[in-house]
Design a protein that fits this description.
Elements (H helix, E strand, L loop, with lengths): L7 E2 L10 H12 L11 H21 L6 E4 L2 H10 L2 H7 L3 E5 L4 H12 L3 E5 L9 H7 L4 E5 L13 H8 L5 E5 L18 E5 L10 E5 L29 H16 L1 H19 L5 E2 L10 E5 L5 H8 L3 E2 L15 H5 L4 H5 L1 E5 L9 H11 L1
Parallel strand pairs: 1-11, 3-4, 3-5, 5-6, 6-7
Antiparallel strand pairs: 2-8, 7-8, 9-10, 10-12
Helix pairs in contact: 1-8, 2-8, 3-5, 6-7, 10-13
Length: 381
């Protein structure tokens, strides 16, 4: 039977392929270790609970946290909601109703912030530089005595630009504001920044680090021996120390743990492979005079956001669809034909934003036919 070759997948910022060993770990808990981690009366439950705690430890090691500071969720969207909305009661009680964030956050942060505004909070959204990052001094200048929360993403999902978390954390210092980081895009890819003890809350997602979809975590670090005063969004069986009720999906959690273990163990080699891929991409695209979005010195090596002058992104994606699978921005907003809020915040025009293509890859991505890609893009121009 005749088969059609699939295009090479270059949309890893939307979701990554699953590592083979992650799949193997998950299959064992789908097929053999079928117990509920909350069942304490038999060996099936005990073994499932052990798998959950092992995964919790594997994830904590990546960010230098304590295992008990890791709460499992359905993904980074839920973690972001829990980190932000979970502080609402405390903020209202303490009279701290101000939040600082940025204009380039993922919708999974901007959405909960809108809800906080509806509940009476004031939200300051900081503009990025043209390089796609927020100046640490702008964060410091926005702080007030009643600031409850500062929320700044780790790595932008559209441009790949890493935010200066270390400098922001240093400037926050002893301020009472909680520091939340949406780390979905950078977890396991840029290690040191997420190990900052000043980061109080951190949202993680398994499917951005070669694990399964449908599982994530919120890391809530202790500061001065006290955890952030979060209130749960879900109520029920009091799983996850009462912060996130619901039967734990043991196969997904075990898979996430294995993905985290591999991310830490293989970090250097993965980065080297992604760097090599990026160099090849830039070398071949150079004749088309691409305009690169974001400060390239701050961009992680698995992302390339660019525009070819005169080439509409939609037309380019159609021209390339049998060669490579690429996107024009965030997967969460790609169904809506409107310019990227991230690129507009960086100062791009609507036309420039609509010309932008995002390529994102991983350590296992094969080389595409760059010459054919360049030829087709040249024809569309």
């Amino acid at each position: 039977m005749e088969t059609t070759a699939h295009p090479i997948y270059l949309d890893c910022n939307a979701t990554t392929p699953i590592e083979p060993s992650v799949r193997q770990v998950m299959l064992a808990y789908f097929d053999e270790e079928i117990g509920n981690a909350g069942s304490r009366t038999h060996v099936y439950g005990t073994r499932s609970r052990r798998a959950v705690e092992e995964a919790r430890d594997q994830i904590a090691k990546v960010v230098d946290a304590q295992p008990e500071e890791v709460t499992f969720t359905s993904g980074a969207t839920e973690s972001n909601n829990l980190a932000i909305l979970g502080l609402a009661d405390f903020g209202l009680e303490q009279g701290r109703r101000h939040i600082v964030s940025t204009q380039i956050e993922h919708k999974a942060v901007l959405g909960p912030l809108k809800e906080m505004e509806r509940r009476g909070f004031e939200v300051t959204l900081l503009a990025p530089t043209t390089g796609g990052y927020v100046e640490p001094g702008a964060v410091q200048a926005a702080l007030r005595g009643d600031t409850l929360l500062v929320s700044v993403m780790h790595v932008n999902n559209e441009t790949g630009v890493e935010q200066p978390l270390g400098k922001i954390a240093a400037l926050l210092g002893d301020h009472a504001a909680f520091f939340h980081v949406d780390a979905a895009q950078g977890f396991g890819k840029s290690i040191s920044a997420l190990r900052l003890p000043r980061i109080d809350l951190m949202s993680l997602s398994s499917h951005k680090v070669y694990g399964p979809k449908g599982i994530g975590a919120l890391v809530a670090r202790r500061r001065r021996f006290r955890k952030p005063p979060l209130q749960p969004l879900l109520h029920g069986g009091d799983q996850e120390r009462g912060l996130r009720s619901g039967t734990l999906p043991v196969p997904l959690i075990a898979g996430f743990g294995e993905a985290a273990r591999l991310a830490l163990a293989d970090h250097a080699d993965r980065r080297r492979r992604c760097d090599a891929f990026r160099r090849q991409a830039l070398r071949h695209l150079l004749p088309l005079s691409p305009r690169l979005n974001g400060d390239q010195e701050r961009t992680l090596p698995h992302t390339l956001s660019f525009a070819i002058p005169g080439v509409d992104a939609e037309a380019a994606m159609v021209a390339l669809k049998d060669l490579v699978a690429v996107s024009n921005g965030s997967a969460c907003t790609s169904a809506r034909y409107e310019p990227s809020h991230v690129l507009l915040a960086m100062g791009l025009s609507d036309e420039e934003a609509n010309q932008t293509i995002r390529m994102s890859w991983c350590h296992a991505t094969p080389e595409p036919d760059w010459k054919e890609i360049v030829r087709r893009l040249g024809e569309v121009a």
